[in-house]
Amino acid sequence: MATLTEAATTRRSARRVRRPRVRAAPYLFVAPFILVFAAFSAYPIFFALQLSFTNWHGAGALEIIGFANYRYLLTSPDFWQSMATSGVLWLLVVPAQVLLALTIAVALRKARFRGLFSAALIAPFVTPLVAMAQVWIILFDQDFGAVNHGLSSIGLPTIGWLTTSAGAKVTVALLVLWRTTGYAVILLMAGLSTIPADVYEAARIDGAGAWQQFWSITVPLVTRTLSFVVVIGTLTVFQLFAEPYVVTGGGPFNATRTAGLYLYKHITNSDLGLGAANSMLLVVMVLALSLASIRLLRSREDS
Amino acid sequence: MTTQLSHPLSRRTLFRGAGAALVAGGLGACAPGNTTGGDPLPSSSATEPPSGEITIWDRTGDLYKVFDKAIASFTAKYPQVKVNHVAVDINAKLPATLISGAGVPDGAFYDDALLTGVAPHLHDLSQLIEQYKSDIAPYKLGVVTVDGKVVAVPWDLDPGLLFYREDIVAQAGVDPTKLATYDDLLGAARTVQQRFPQARPIHLENDQFLAQLWIDMFANQQGGAMVDAQGKLTLDSDPYRTTLTWLDTVRSQGLGTLAKYTQPTDLQTQDNGTQVFVPWAQWFVFAPQQLLKASKGKWRATALPAWQAGGARAGVMGGSSFVIPAKAKNPELAWRLYEHLVFSKEGYTTVYGQNDVYPGGLNTSIPSYLPALDPDQPLFKTIDALGGQDLWKVAVEAGKQVPGGYTIPTWWGKAVDYFGVNVQKMLAGRMSPDEVLKTSASQIQKNLMGPN
């Protein structure tokens, strides 16, 4: 028994001896990041979480009201309408963006002057939104807009682009598409450039046509980039604020009041507790949607 | 809770939906538990010339330039004062700044309709305003008073007027001086339409925020408001029902042009003669002066029609005031500046007088300070874009008829999501006036006046 105890003690001592010394240097190097992250990311998140359980309006002491904000939002038609609006915009924007961006990226893969095309594609992304929104308002005006003028000149009925619920959603979606597709193209071009040329060569030798190559090589090998594009698109749509704010003001009839715009309303109204709860719900929903999108794409990659 | 300044010391035009972007990284500054405002402020001796430095926010655009010149008249008078005059998207920035407490200005221009929403973050100016109370338009004094405290220095008055196309009205044989009631206006619209079949003579506002503001003007004209003096909801009432019924008649009889103020459809239809009558605030005059082309010089202004024969011929649409945040570093000095701009002849004459932006003077509103409202002492010149009309006289006469006793509820801006949107639906033929009032009242009661 004593022998066993001595042996165990010896092993423990040996382990203590072998344990590496903790060095301070790595921690010192990462400390600036940790501090900045704590101050500007972690603290605001925890503060927002704390706020979401209060009815704070920006003044006075915090009064804890439990889950009242969450209950209010989850039973509020306005909240669900804003989520539904963002959902519809997601359906209008993200699939179209992926399809468009992938098509353009593949088309540009062998094109000359790729740098020039890339610059042209990124231009909408860096154009001041307010200026573009004003152009959009003029283009899509019900009575005097160029779009309706074009439609009527070829005998088609005009559309209430800014005056009907459905039309306004499409108008906002088109602006988002116009602004963000170029960015997605750049990402996908980077993704495509990592696919080795000999994979395509082998497929050609095996008799694969262009469509087969695209569907069986390009899409699976660029899935990770596509996942990233979808996640970025999802985040963009659910945080969408500036486009509907400037072009439609959230109208007509609140038809373009997105989740981001609805959240902004709470902040504007100094309903900071409600706004914080809304943002927490938004985080959960966007996270779920992003993960579902990734899983869907990954399952395609795995298969 | 507004903060009391302990001792007395001694715009424009286009309303936009209010907004406040949350300032990233500024949360540390809005530590909860801070009360609005600090200790009672020391009084400055009226005999001692003011000195120090203040930061003043004004709305970006024409008004910034107007006030820049007016502020120069203050600093010329008091050279020891330095004013940092900053052009800011106030509706977007001020609420967040007041909450965060970071970079708070000493004074800021702010829309009256949004005052109640930020009132807890402002100084109580009641004692300072006391000496001027009897000289302020009653309507204006009402809107800057929140919970019995004056929370802003009242600036302009924006009486509603009836703007009309003089050339078209004359060709149709309509006498604008005979438009005494809104029924007369309907009749005039029909007459114009008979003469010009493509005309949809009466403007119908399609922006939800502006539509609410616009309808409140009509309600104010009838002595109504969304809430009574006790704060009880009075939306579902005769003034609003009468207004909405009239607007619905305009819509259903094809007598109106549905458009958003100053958006392409609005400007085009005003220029091409589709719109002939625009019952709107005085600040509509900006459009003929700056935006309209073909119809420039063809517009005129007259008093609004009355809702009943002999009734009030004016209501107010919009307006702005100056606020002094509770967290301002130098509130006394900000007060001195605003006192100069609003209540001194030199100040208001400079504000409304000629400048680079308005060579004939600022004519989009009139002062709310009654001694400034002499019909025979115009602060701005006659307006070429109105065919040389003396708008000052028309506006001053209207301004004096504005009913007082108007209360802006704290949730006025939030109500746009309900009342403003439902009005939009009515003007699209999707709701009746009664449905708008009943639904809006119920939504406002539940969402804005309930426990949350």
UniProtKB/TrEMBL annotation, chain A:
It is a multi-pass membrane protein. GO terms for cellular component: plasma membrane. Pfam families: BPD_transp_1. Keywords: Cell membrane, Membrane, Sugar transport, Transmembrane, Transmembrane helix, Transport. The keyword Membrane applies. Coiled coil: none annotated. InterPro entries: ABC_transporter_permease, MetI-like, MetI-like_sf. The keyword Phosphoprotein does not apply. PROSITE patterns: ABC_TM1 (PS50928). Residues 83-293 form the ABC transmembrane type-1 domain. The chain crosses the membrane at residues 25-46, 88-108, 115-139, 159-178, 221-242, 272-297. CDD domains: TM_PBP2. GO terms for biological process: transmembrane transport. It is found in: Cell membrane. Belongs to the binding-protein-dependent transport system permease family. PANTHER family: ABC TRANSPORTER PERMEASE PROTEIN, INNER MEMBRANE ABC TRANSPORTER PERMEASE PROTEIN YCJO. This is ABC-type sugar transport system permease subunit.
Automatic annotation (TrEMBL), chain B:
The keyword Disulfide bond does not apply. InterPro entries: Bact_solute-bd_prot1, SBP, TAT_signal. GO terms for cellular component: cell envelope. It comes from the Bacteria. It is found in: Cell envelope. Belongs to the bacterial solute-binding protein 1 family. This is Lactose/L-arabinose transport system substrate-binding protein.
